[in-house]
Each structure stands twice: as structure tokens, then as C-alpha cells.
């Protein structure tokens, strides 16, 4: 095994492949950092470039793009409170507030380091336990996926920041928006109002860019009208990665838990890093000794999000390499790239083309180190982007958002869509409604509906199949416990003011 891994390192560290990977990581970081551009776009645009390359060079370039784009989303998520990719949604929750408090360097440093560690952890999982984990994931059917989706949806209350009713409203609205278009299974059109453009529904990218990027642009534009011209907090000196060794060591348990969540969710087809970073964030908040600090600027939230989304890289590669099943859009393009070079993923791949498999492992490790070095080198440059006046920066970001939306399907309709969701996101801000539950509902809605209907088909309309299945029954039970616990917690919080008033009255007497 180690001999094969050494051969893989020798291959990827050759001058040609190493330079290709360096360029790939740099381009990936840019695509991840710019709102509206994603890892899917980066890999799809660069895939033709691999036709004339050998298998090792072509696959290494695609992996470098994947790693760079996944991590690059943290840059705009922290500096601008706009997630560059769906995998950095939860990074905005604490990364943005840290930036506002003048701790932008620390937030970026924490994000970069734990992105690196998450990637390394996922490579270790890919190398040592890939076949076993893939077999477990393959045993999951519609009943299990529906139960996982329901359990994840019940976590919405954790992100409701003081009002469970508002959080549930946002989650239900997100679920409702996800039903627009052609229905799964029976292919009937819903809520299209005879508009052909709505047949395909709304893309996660247009919703994400609108709800976060455009809404943030409108919000900043509104507040800047009455601003006194005070400059944004700037960081003059940055020591190391911006955080101390005790802070790093204190986040190790959080990082391990988040890496396991990212790897586990990455293995399951169709869920992806857009969900894993939010679930890891919720888990970190539940286990934290200071949950009240989440959303106000704590490194725990950044660590959880960035570790989980990068751990999903290796997780998504596990079913791709061992079973030939792509887990998301990125690995679907990766599958095409493998097949272009005559590589057929599956159980026999580890036997027939073992050297190439370990070259992929080496490429993932080298890409992680390149990502760490390039982002660390650019740390001071990223911070200085805040010196750009808002009246120049915001229009440029808006144009890039529009270009990214148009690039999805070359439709002007998608540009109008991001503007519409931008207005909705701004309305959420004004009404104090959290955006995260809306995104969770939108992402998990299609999976829950599709799995529910397929599960009913398998059990011939018998609803009890979801309960009698051991795995789905367990997750549904956990969902019920989660709802009950959240309701109890809300009740206890509502009773505190009443108790305080009674104690005050008793003291006056």
C-alpha cells in the first residue's frame, strides 16, 4: 500500500503535473470565492483541457480544481457575508460577525487551516475504509433517505435564533419553493403558472446567490446611505494564521466531529456539502459550552462548517471510486473525466488499476497542501479587499452574481430569479426571519419528497414501512425526540421571565 502511495506522489510531484495542480487549485479558489461561480463550473470548463493529457495529469487537475473551489468559498463568506459556494453557507453565520468585530484574519486563518485538516481526514477515510463505507451507503434506500431528510429538517429549530415559529415558517417556505417545476416520479407540472422557464424549478445556485449575495448587497446599500464614512475594521498585522495554539487545540474535538459528519454525508449520494456544513454547524452549537455565542462571531462555527465541507470531498469520492456512483454534480463530472481516460470506477478499480487509485490519493493530499499555502499566501490580500469602497465593490459583485446565474443555462430568467430571491432575502432580514432554515428546506425538500414517494412505491402504499425499517425507524424516532426537546427548551425559555417576575415581587414584599 505504502509503495503504491509513494509511486502516486512521484507521479503528481513531477514538474508538469505539479504545475497543473498549482494552477488548478488557484483557479478553483477563485471560482469558489466569486459568488455565482462553483466547483461544477470550474471542472466543467476545464474538463476539455484534460483530453490531451494522460490519465494521471488529467485526473490530478480535476481534483485540484475540486479542492480549491470547495475551500475558496470561505473567502467571500467571511469578508462579505456572501457564501461563494453552497458548501460555505454556515461559514457566513459566524465568519461575517467575526469580520465585523475586526477578527477577519482569525476567521480566515481558522477556515483555511481546518479546511486543510478536513480534506486530509477525508483522504484518510478514502484510503483506509472506502470499500466498507461504500457498502453501508449502498444499503440505504428510499426509506432511509426520507428519514434522514426528516431528521435534518427537524434541526431547523436550532437555527431559529429566538423564534421557532419564524424558523419553521422559513423552512416550510423553502420546502414549498423546492416543489416548483416538474414533480418527481409522476412528472406533473406544479406551480409553473404556464411559464416554461419554471418547469425545471429553481436552481440551488440562483436561490443561494439571491438569498445571501443580492440580499446582502441591498442591505449594505441601505445602511450605507446613512453611514458616517467610518472605514471597515482593518487588520494591519497578522501573526501566523491569526489564531493561537490554545485556540487550535480547543477546537480539535469540534473538528473531529465535523469531519465525521462531512465524510458520512459526503458518502450519501444526493446530499452533498451544502447540507453537511449546516448540520455540522448545528451539531457544534448543540455540543458547545457557549451556544449563545453562535451567530455573534465564534471560531467554533467557522471550524465546524469548513471542516465538514472539505471532509465531504473524500466522502464523495468513496462511492465514486468503489461503486462508480457519483454523489453530486461535481463527482458526476469527475466520473465523466475518468471514463474519458478509459478508467471504469467500481470494485475492480482497486485491483486492476491500483497505481492510478493511489495517484488520486496523492493528488488529493498534494492539492490540500497547495490550497493551504496559496490561501495563506493570499491571506493579507484577501483582507485588503475590504479597502475597496463599497460603491465600487458592490456593483462588481452584483455583476459577477448575474454572470454566474446566466452561466448556468444561458437564460436571462435566472438573472431575474436571483433578483427576486434577493428581495425575498432582504425581506427576511427586515422581518427578523432566519435564512438558514429556508435554505435547508429548499435543499432537503426534493430529497424528502422523492424518497417518500419511492418508499411508498416499494411498500405498495404501506406507510408503516418507514417505521418498520430499522434505519429509517431510528432516524424518525430521533426526529421525534428532537422536536420534543426543542419544544421543551422553548417552553423553559418562555417560563424564565415569568419566574423572574414572581421572584422580584416576592422580594419586594
TrEMBL record:
Pfam families: TctA. The keyword NAD does not apply. Keywords: Membrane, Transmembrane, Transmembrane helix. The chain crosses the membrane at residues 17-47, 59-80, 107-133, 145-162, 168-186, 198-218, 259-284, 320-344, 356-379, 391-409, 415-445, 466-488. Residues 19-440 form the DUF112 domain. It comes from the Bacteria. This is Putative tricarboxylic transport membrane protein. It comes from Cereibacter changlensis. The lineage of its organism: Bacteria, Pseudomonadati, Pseudomonadota, Alphaproteobacteria, Rhodobacterales.
Amino acid at each position: 500500500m505504502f509503495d503504491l502511495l509513494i509511486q502516486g506522489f512521484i507521479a503528481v510531484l513531477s514538474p508538469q503535473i505539479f504545475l497543473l495542480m498549482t494552477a488548478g487549485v488557484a483557479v478553483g479558489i477563485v471560482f469558489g470565492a466569486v459568488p455565482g461561480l462553483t466547483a461544477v463550473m470550474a471542472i466543467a470548463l476545464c474538463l476539455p483541457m484534460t483530453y490531451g493529457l494522460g490519465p494521471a495529469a488529467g485526473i490530478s487537475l480535476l481534483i485540484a480544481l475540486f479542492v480549491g473551489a470547495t475551500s475558496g468559498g470561505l473567502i467571500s463568506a467571511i469578508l462579505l457575508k456572501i457564501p461563494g459556494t453552497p458548501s460555505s453557507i454556515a461559514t457566513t453565520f459566524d465568519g461575517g460577525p467575526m469580520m465585523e468585530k475586526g477578527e477577519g484574519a482569525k476567521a480566515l486563518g481558522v477556515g483555511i487551516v481546518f479546511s486543510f485538516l478536513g480534506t486530509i481526514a477525508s483522504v484518510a477515510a478514502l484510503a483506509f475504509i472506502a470499500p466498507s463505507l461504500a457498502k453501508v451507503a449502498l444499503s440505504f434506500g428510499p426509506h432511509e433517505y426520507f428519514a434522514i431528510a426528516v431528521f435534518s429538517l427537524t434541526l431547523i429549530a436550532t437555527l431559529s435564533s429566538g423564534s421557532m415559529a419564524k424558523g419553521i415558517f422559513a423552512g416550510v417556505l423553502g420546502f414549498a419553493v423546492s416543489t416548483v417545476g416538474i414533480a418527481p416520479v409522476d412528472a406533473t407540472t406544479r406551480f409553473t403558472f404556464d411559464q416554461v422557464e419554471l418547469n425545471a424549478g429553481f436552481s440551488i445556485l440562483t436561490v443561494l446567490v439571491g438569498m445571501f449575495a443580492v440580499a446582502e448587497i441591498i442591505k449594505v446599500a441601505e445602511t450605507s446611505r446613512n453611514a458616517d464614512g467610518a472605514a471597515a475594521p482593518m487588520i494591519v498585522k497578522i501573526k501566523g494564521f491569526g489564531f493561537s495554539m490554545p485556540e487550535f487545540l480547543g477546537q480539535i474535538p469540534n473538528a473531529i466531529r465535523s469531519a465525521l459528519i462531512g465524510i458520512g454525508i459526503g458518502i450519501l449520494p444526493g446530499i452533498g456539502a451544502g447540507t453537511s456544513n449546516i448540520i455540522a454547524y448545528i451539531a457544534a452549537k448543540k455540543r458547545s459550552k457557549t451556544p449563545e455565542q453562535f451567530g455573534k462571531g465564534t471560531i467554533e462555527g467557522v471550524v465546524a462548517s469548513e471542516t465538514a465541507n472539505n471532509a465531504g470531498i473524500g466522502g464523495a469520492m468513496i462511492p465514486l471510486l468503489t461503486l462508480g456512483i457519483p454523489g453530486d454534480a461535481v463527482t458526476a463530472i469527475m466520473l465523466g473525466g475518468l471514463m474519458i481516460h478509459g478508467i471504469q470506477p467500481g470494485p475492480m478499480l482497486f485491483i486492476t488499476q491500483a497505481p492510478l487509485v493511489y495517484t488520486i490519493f496523492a493528488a488529493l493530499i498534494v492539492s490540500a497542501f497547495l490550497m493551504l499555502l496559496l490561501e495563506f499566501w493570499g491571506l493579507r490580500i484577501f483582507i485588503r479587499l475590504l479597502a475597496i469602497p463599497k460603491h465600487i465593490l458592490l456593483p462588481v459583485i452584483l455583476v459577477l452574481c448575474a454572470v454566474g446565474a446566466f452561466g448556468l443555462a444561458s437564460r436571462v430568467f435566472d438573472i431575474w430569479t436571483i433578483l427576486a430571491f434577493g428581495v425575498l432575502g432582504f425581506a427576511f432580514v427586515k422581518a427578523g426571519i432566519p435564512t438558514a432554515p429556508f435554505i435547508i428546506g429548499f435543499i432537503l425538500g426534493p430529497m424528502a419528497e422523492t424518497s417518500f414517494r419511492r418508499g411508498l412505491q416499494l411498500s405498495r402504499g404501506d406507510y408503516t414501512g418507514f417505521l418498520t425499517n430499522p434505519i429509517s425507524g431510528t432516524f424518525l424516532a430521533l426526529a421525534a425526540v428532537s422536536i420534543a426537546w426543542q419544544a421543551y427548551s422553548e417552553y423553559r425559555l418562555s417560563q424564565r421571565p415569568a419566574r423572574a417576575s414572581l421572584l422580584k415581587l416576592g422580594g419586594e414584599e
